[in-house]
Specification:
Distance between the termini: 34 Å
Shape: elongated
Helix content: 40-55%
CATH architecture of the largest domain: Beta Barrel
InterPro entries: ACOX_C_alpha1, Acyl-CoA_Oxase/DH_mid-dom_sf, Acyl-CoA_oxidase, AcylCo_DH-like_C, AcylCoA_DH/oxidase_NM_dom_sf
CATH topology of the largest domain: Butyryl-CoA Dehydrogenase, subunit A, domain 2
Family: Belongs to the acyl-CoA oxidase family.
Number of helices: 5
Structural class: alpha+beta
Number of strands: 13
Cofactor: FAD
CATH class of the largest domain: Mainly Beta
Bound molecules: flavin-adenine dinucleotide
CATH superfamily of the largest domain: Butyryl-CoA Dehydrogenase, subunit A, domain 2
Keywords: FAD, Fatty acid metabolism, Flavoprotein, Lipid metabolism, Oxidoreductase, Peroxisome
Number of domains: 2
Pfam family, one: ACOX_C_alpha1
Radius of gyration: 24 Å
């Protein structure tokens, strides 16, 4: 998300400063949008980025505890930088939520930068490969030119300008939805691989007529009837993800030519698939788990 946001939302001048260090892990970044008080309702975010005309800087601030950034992946321990979504304020006007590049840790000692408080949100039920953090900012200053300004900008007089179509910001958020859609079949297939292998190796009860061997778990109809629908769903999801990936690539290509015509249909497909696929995935994984006996 960090790299993708730079690629899509930052200007050419910002690309020249941030892309190479990011590719070589000299800048390790996170995508800091969600706050304790607001997740789905992005327009309700409360973190502020107020332009200071005296120094030509933005002052990033967490006005209350609800505005603390909460959940960003890798923020708690691993990141040096964050793309922070905050309300742009200039000359008393609010220009809505915009993205800003903020250095959050000192590259020499990895301590939080002055005015930045960081932490880990704590243990989660799953997804342990990712730590999720929180951040509170107290009057953190960044140069005016560190607002990601390919599509919106604040000029040296503090005037806000829209350079392109603001829907591009939503296009970046759609990427995560696409990743969740594509991740579903991968995780479900992984669980099924374990469960099916277990079921064709493990035997319980001598119930096969004329045989002294015990019956494989998979040869019980009750077992098959639980696994088969999820196997079919995993294949169906895989088949659809390649279609959705191609459509997303085509949408982003067209957007780069200022054509947003695919965005509407893409939004509906991704929203529907995200819910359906993640539902099938978590139910399927739990079904496999429950049907591996104590090993599950
Ligand atoms: C593992 C993990 C990683 C994350 N990584 C990041 C990250 O890197 N960066 C980042 O910025 N954020 C991240 N997030 C935050 C994530 O984007 C938010 O959790 C998400 O946007 C939902 O916001 P919320 O948790 O505040 O839920 P809320 O907005 O409070 O919603 C709670 C529930 O209310 C219901 N609801 C809400 N609005 C409506 C509505 N309009 N209609 C009907 N029902 C509704 C839904 O059931 C929803 O699930 C992460 C979250 C998790 C769990």
């Amino acid at each position: 998300m960090f790299m993708y946001s730079i690629e899509k939302l930052a200007s050419d001048e910002q690309h020249s400063r941030w892309l190479e260090p990011t590719k070589h892990f000299n800048m390790i970044g996170c995508y800091a949008q969600t706050e304790l008080g607001h997740g789905s309702n992005v327009a309700g975010l409360e973190t502020t980025a107020t332009w200071d005309p005296k120094t030509d800087e933005f002052v990033l601030h967490t006005p209350n505890i609800k505005a603390a950034k909460f959940w960003p992946g890798d923020m708690g321990h691993f990141c040096s930088h964050a793309i922070v979504f905050a309300r742009l304020r200039s000359k008393g006007k609010d220009y809505g939520v915009q993205p800003f590049m903020v250095q959050i840790r000192d590259l020499n000692n990895w301590e939080p930068m002055p005015g930045v408080e960081l932490g880990d949100v704590g243990a989660k039920y799953g997804y342990h490969s990712k730590e999720n953090g929180f951040m509170v900012m107290n009057q953190v200053r960044i140069p005016r030119n560190d607002m990601l300004n390919r599509f919106t900008n604040l000029d040296k007089d503090g005037e806000f300008e829209v350079i392109g179509d603001l829907r591009i910001i939503y296009g970046v958020m759609m990427l995560i939805r696409l990743q969740i859609v594509c991740g579903g079949p991968m995780y479900l297939a992984g669980a099924l691989k374990i469960g099916v292998r277990y079921a064709v190796c493990r035997r319980q009860f001598k119930t096969m007529h004329g045989s002294k061997q015990e019956r494989k778990l998979m040869d019980y109809q009750s077992h098959m009837v639980k696994f088969a629908p999820y196997l079919a769903k995993a294949y169906a999801m895989y088949a659809n993800t390649s279609y959705v990936k191609d459509l997303f690539t085509e949408m982003m290509k067209r957007i780069s030519q200022d054509d947003f015509s695919l965005m509407d249909v893409m939004h509906h497909i991704l929203s529907g698939f995200k819910v359906t696929f993640s539902d099938w995935t978590h139910l399927g994984i739990d079904c496999v788990r429950q049907n591996c006996g104590g090993a599950g």
